[in-house]
Structures
1.
Amino acid sequence: MLKILAVIGWIILAILIIIIWFILVPRTFYVEYTQSKNFVVKVRLFFLKLKVYPLNISFRKKDKPKKVAKKPTNSAKSEKKDTKETKKEKNKFKEIFEYVLNNKHIVKQVLETVKGAFKILFNGITVKGVSFIMPITSDDAHDLQKKYAAMTTSFYAVNIILQKYVKIFYKSPIFVADFANLYEDKTYFYCKIQACPSIIITLGWYLFKQYKQIMANNKSLKEN
């Protein structure tokens, strides 16, 4: 009977931890940019919006210690030190390059793991309400037309790639052909980023499994 009660207690505790996790972990971030305020990042916790960047915290400036005049050193000694350091750096790069060549299978598995981790991360993130005002200025009408066409085509080309990997939804993307410089100081950006709270657990479990698999594969190759 006590064992059954202990099991029920552990189950209830696990459920409570999961509930607290889902409540406390911030799942919504608000990113806003204006030329007057620069970037502002806020987080929603419960019914509150808390500003996390920039933090308006003032610290007292510590008195900097006075610099002591260094004694002149011999140029020959300093040159020898520089050559030794450069040789060490070259040897490090050589060692890394040789390791990559000799362990291609591990490097391939690590790259696949990183790719899978990014896939899990992007699947758990949704970007909503993307709005921006992007003024495009020029004194020449023909040059302004070229700039506007280049900016809009590059935006839609990048957007096609982004939407393959990230769930992104636009509200009001605005490009302004600002010939009269009326929107010079009105550059604006806003978006809401929503993250699934379970993404950290899923990502951690995936990386742990991949690590075990890579270590097991490496061990079997060494034995063979």
2.
Amino acid sequence: MKHKKLLALFLGGLLGCCAIACSAPGEQPPSDNIGKEDGQKPQGQKEDGDSQGSDSEKTENQKPVLDENATDEDLLDLVKDDTKVVAEKEYAKIISDMKEHVEDFSGQLYQMEGYYLEEDGTSYITDDPKSTEGNSLPLRYVQEAPKSGAKIRITGIAEQGEDDTPVFSVVVLESLD
């Protein structure tokens, strides 16, 4: 149950960051709305007659998307429209492209199948159950690791790690063996 709460918290944080990062050009960032609660207008901003309530009122009425008893399947169902499914025949090209242009893939949600390997204390998804050479990505936040060499389906977020190398932050890891 603890890992499900962490996954829900992680996803909530991710969705919040995405919402802030994807705000339309010309919109006020949330920090510009400070002071509106007191009836003050932010410095350098004109009062907008189209406003239908403060942002704080809107967020108070929001409810969590998932409850504390949500399963991994519930989480996957919630994000299925935003998930890019990588087919087996596309796997090698996607991994290669991620390694060359991690900035183009960073922050996007992917689902792919491969093999789980651990090497030198680092977890990987790879297309070869014996080696991490070639088409493999390091994994972060693996909570319940399957046995090394196991066939897995993983849903996670491509991110830029240290030294501009791609890493895959795990949201859901399913063992297919």
